[in-house]
Design a protein that fits this description.
heterodimer, A: about 250 residues, mainly alpha, globular, B: about 50 residues
Chain lengths: ~250, ~50
């Protein structure tokens, strides 16, 4: 007998459920800490922008939410694909758990973008490549969720959802590169891997802290949602019935 | 960044509605998502008793 770590242990809902209960509060705490730091840097350290005045401070949530909206879509498509390819039920549950938070992040990116666009461009909304592809992302999330909700058999719902998730993933690079590919009103990338950032160091610090906060929050809330989905789908399993009484 | 007074901070250089409208709605969404999920989980745990 060799002692090997069983990496697939947590792929089973009875093992994963207690793990999520342990981890979620830590991710919430991390989100709160990074969020407090990010807000402090964003409002009290970062200077006023020379061109945009104080309106630019929307960037700290706008960019963080927009990054998460794209990243969560890739995560959702990944788990949906794994769920279909390997028939692992927890993977599909993860995909379903990511979707509403991804949709929320997309909504926040669009909402804060509208409130930023109005004072800077003079319009709440323009049919611009970046904005339109982000709106399509919102429709993809909503499509994924409604399709899953419309199908009674969860395994069939998982497979149908995976088709939307995987086809729609082509939209993510379109959003990301839209500011380069098309002539657009939206400004270019603030941060890129190939050149130095086009903003003050403290502004960048605030933005990265908020991005970390959104990241931690997303993980926490997805773990919380997957706990609910596990209980809903496995409610007839013995291990769910044997869970200890919830504390009040 | 030294704002001087609370009212200049809240005024956000004339962009108060846009800045606080963004942060307010984002905060509301986050609070709502978290409380709804916690309530959903609590309800599910009660049902399995």
């Amino acid at each position: 007998m060799t002692a090997t770590i069983n990496w697939f242990k947590y792929a089973s809902p009875p093992a994963f459920y207690p793990l999520t209960g342990t981890l979620a509060p830590w991710f919430f705490a991390a989100a709160a800490v990074f969020g407090a730091m990010g807000l402090y840097v964003g409002f009290f350290v970062a200077p006023t922008d020379a061109q945009q005045g104080e309106a630019y401070r929307i960037i700290f949530i706008h960019v963080a939410a927009a990054w998460m909206s794209m990243f969560l879509y890739v995560v959702m498509a990944f788990w949906a694909g794994v769920g279909v390819a390997f028939n692992t039920r927890l993977s599909s549950m993860m995909a379903s758990a990511v979707a509403p938070t991804g949709a929320l992040m997309t909504f926040i990116a669009l909402w804060t973008g509208a409130l930023w666009g109005k004072p800077m461009w003079g319009a709440w909304w323009v049919w611009d490549a970046r904005l339109t592809s982000e709106l399509i992302l919102l429709f993809l999330y909503i499509g994924f969720m409604s399709l899953q909700a419309a199908i009674d058999d969860p395994r069939r719902a998982d497979r149908a959802g995976a088709v939307i998730a995987l086809v729609g993933v082509v939209n993510v690079p379109i959003i990301y590169f839209s500011v380069q590919w098309w002539n657009t009103l939206h400004q270019g990338a603030s941060v890129s891997l190939t050149r130095s950032p086009s903003m003050a160091a403290t502004m960048l610090t605030g933005m990265l802290l908020m991005a970390l906060a959104f990241w931690m929050y997303s993980i926490a809330v997805v773990l919380l949602r997957v706990r609910c989905i596990i209980l809903e789908r496995e409610r007839n399993a013995d291990w769910v019935k044997q869970l200890p009484e919830p504390q009040r | 960044m030294n704002w001087g007074s609370v009212s200049t901070f809240l005024a956000m250089g004339g962009y108060a509605g846009f800045v606080w409208g963004s942060y307010g709605v984002t905060g509301l969404c986050i609070a709502l998502e978290t409380t709804l999920l916690m309530a959903r989980h609590r309800r599910l745990r009660r049902k399995t008793d």
